Amino acid sequence: MRVLVADDSPTMRRLLQSTLEExxxxxxxxxxxEQAFEILSxxxxxxxxxxxxxxxxxxxxxxCSRVRGRKSRTYTYILLLTSKAQHQDxxxxxxxxxxxxxxxxxxxxxxxxxxxxxxRIVDLQTELMQMQEALREQATRDSLxxxxxxxxxxxxxAREINRCCRERRALGVxxxxxxxxxxxxxxYGHVCGDEVLKQLVxxxxxxxxxxxxxxRYGGEEFICVLSGCGEQDVKSNAERIRAEVAARPIEWMNxxxxxxxxxxxxxxxxxxxxxxxxxxxxxxxxxxxAKREGRNRVSFTAYGDAA
Length: 307
Fold this sequence. Notes:
Layout: E1 2-6, H1 10-22, E2 26-30, H2 33-40, E3 48-52, H3 60-69, E4 77-82, H4 87-95, E5 100-103, H5 108-140, H6 150-167, E6 171-178, H7 181-188, H8 190-207, E7 213-218, E8 221-227, H9 231-246, E9 250-252, E10 255-257, E11 261-268, H10 276-292, E12 298-302
Parallel strand pairs: 1-2, 1-3, 3-4, 4-5, 11-12
Antiparallel strand pairs: 6-8, 6-11, 7-8, 9-10
Helix pairs in contact: 2-3, 7-8, 8-9
């Protein structure tokens, strides 16, 4: 774990560095408060900081206040190193945002124990952030295919409709449905069917632009959202995805499952009153036209203003 050591004394910095490195920490040094703040404001700051109380440009308490005033998802555990032993001084340092303090000259066992406590807090915060990310993933992603779920899909569509309407840009939507998917489940079982859906999403994502979105609308139906795509772009994107899906069988166990999909592609500049439900309904009508015409094909419909 990285630790920032901020002290204007080169001798103290060397002493702290050798001590901390002996305990297995990676040390980052700063020679004044301003440099320490720059390090702690970086994208990946050290999670623990040992700050001298008296430093040029920014004192330890002033630096604590600045660090605590930042909007940051990560927490920095701050240990103030001070020769001040007065009760009021220590209250000031803790009130500025320090987590703990140690009196100079520091006692090695005491320093090690206090850093170990800080490390536990940092580790707990890391675990909490990982749990929050897992919960966010569960709330926004489809549990099987890991593409966007229905709720997130509608949220993405609503944002893109508003943005494209405001900027007078085309919004393309592709709705796709696996052809004869029931046969896959009936022939090979639902475990194989799940694998087919997962591999389908990977193929679609591989054929899409990196900034486009795909979400699971329900069952074997998926929706792709392509911002800024007019008629020709949507048609070519849909055809590329169709070809990628049908290009080769999906291999599962000892089976080779050939799949195709039907596509309803739509594009236009969204009217101000257009809702995600209405746009999906237009794409759904185009999709079922593709199915009526023989499946494994793209059917296009324009909507709203001409793109």
